[in-house]
Amino acid sequence: MRQSLLRFVRILHITRVLVRYRLDEVLYFLPILKPYQAILRLSPMSWLGSKPQGDFAERLRQALETLGPTFIKLGQMLSTRRDLLPDYITQELAKLQDAVPPFPSDQAREIIEKALGKPVSSIFTEFDSQPAAAASIAQVHFGVLQDGRKVAIKVRRPGLRRIIDQDLAILGLLADLAERYSQEGRRLRVRAVVAEYAKTLRGELDLLREAANASQLRRNFAADPDLLYIPEIYWDFCSSSVLVMERIYGIPIGQLDALRKAGINFDQLSRRAADIFFRQVFRDAYFHADMHPGNIFIDPQNGRFIAVDFGIMGSLDDASQHYLAENMIAFFQRDYRRVAEAHVEAGWVPPDTNVQDFEAAIRAIAEPVFEKPLNEISVANLLLRLFQTTRAFHMQTQPQLLLLQKTLVNVEGIARDFNPALNMWEVATPLLTDWLSRQRGPRGWWTEMKRHFPEWGLVVPEIPILLHNILRQTQQGELPLVIRNQDLEGIRQELRRGMLRLSFGVSGTFIVIGIGIMAALAHKLDFAILDLPLWAWLILVPGLTWIGFRWVSSFFKVRD
């Protein structure tokens, strides 16, 4: 009851803000909310007070900033969706500021002591009461641990989770109405988009999850120390509301003059930015999804990137990775037919889509772009124009790609700031080609064999027993068969061919497993398996497999 009352009060507040900025018309695209218009027209809020300044986009940005963190983050996400919104709106939403006044340091101390169960003085020898940065989710203080390590302490704002939970529930309700009563809402998969956004935002609220994200990213780039540095997390001092990590020292990426004075190579920086992005997406399938200038620094000693704020991370499944790489490679090769086919195969457009028409539409947007020099082509803009075109072919929104689009726009902007002549295709193509070869070629097969080898260890011992049961049931006439064809001779021939295929399949399985074992141990030829040297297995495995094949085949030289 109390939750319902709080939610109702929040809805009233949101309505008040929409009316104040003359944005209440955004609700009326749903027929079910039309009566709401009449109520608001009669409300004194609609005709009292001064009228807000600016066009629709400016008023929308101001309203989102007034509504708080949930809507600020939503606006920032929508600022990258030029496939859904007009450019003048996305450009205005890109100006959304996540900087808000800090909350009192006494409250920060109280949150830290409650979360860690110790007085601040027993954890830190120094604690800077003046916040170094303040945002809508949390604020950061600097300090020094008892052992002398300098740290950054991130503290979540008090009372934030309750407000965000209410806002997400309201957005979920609106999304449900949009899909239920609007065909456009169903095409855009509004519920899935809101669910993905809610998952991302709730993950950002949990600072333990952010700490885990940072640790994972740090491991991923442990072998690339010259590319990207991730601060160390001090787990003994972390909770869902407090995060303590290594303090970093770097030049903010937006301070170009300071970077020049430090002697940083801008061309190298631009290439590293693109390299970091593509490595995260196609090597790790796990990427920092909030790479705006406020979260990126440059180490003045060696020019490597330093990242902070790991609340928003993105990941891609194998299918999305594969089709994204296919699309980008096909674009670069101007193979528009393959781009169209990849969309259909991925299920991003309906299966009955006319591929020729789709190919022609893609060619119409891509060819004018490729007439420019390659270093002037924006990968992000090209993909966004593709999504705008696919809208006409009823492409469903892919929530897993939302964060990727946002990140690509940010990274390409950073790279081009340092070197406007950067050829993103030149950086991307070798990485994409290498990734595809690892996925589909012999290297990919070998990787899959190694990955599934432990599973084979559980399954393979059961194969002889299962095969023996099938053969015994077949010999004794107990194998259940459903016969629908009256041509018994044809059935016998088909059964014979099927069993032969089974024999070949079983034999092939043993051969593949044998080869996999031998390949894995190829560097130890004197290694003994079941008291037999490896060279003996090299003779026995093929021999026994052939004998087994002949034995299985003999059962089905039937008995006409």
From TrEMBL:
- Stretches that traverse the bilayer: 502-522, 534-552
Q: Which UniProt keywords apply?
A: ATP-binding, Cell inner membrane, Cell membrane, Kinase, Membrane, Nucleotide-binding, Transferase, Transmembrane, Transmembrane helix, Ubiquinone, Ubiquinone biosynthesis
What SUPFAM superfamilies is this protein classified in? Answer: Protein kinase-like (PK-like) (SSF56112)
The record ties this protein, via CDD domains, to: UbiB (cd13972)
Give the family, as the similarity comment puts it. Belongs to the protein kinase superfamily. ADCK protein kinase family.
Where in the numbering of this chain does the ABC1 atypical kinase-like domain appear?
95-342
- Please identify the protein, giving its name as recorded: Ubiquinone biosynthesis regulatory protein kinase UbiB
Q: Which organism is it from?
A: Acidithiobacillus marinus
Gene Ontology terms for molecular function: ATP binding; kinase activity
Q: What are the leading ranks of the lineage?
A: Bacteria, Pseudomonadati, Pseudomonadota, Acidithiobacillia, Acidithiobacillales
What pathway is this protein said to act in by its record? Answer: Cofactor biosynthesis; ubiquinone biosynthesis [regulation]
Record Pfam families: ABC1 (PF03109)
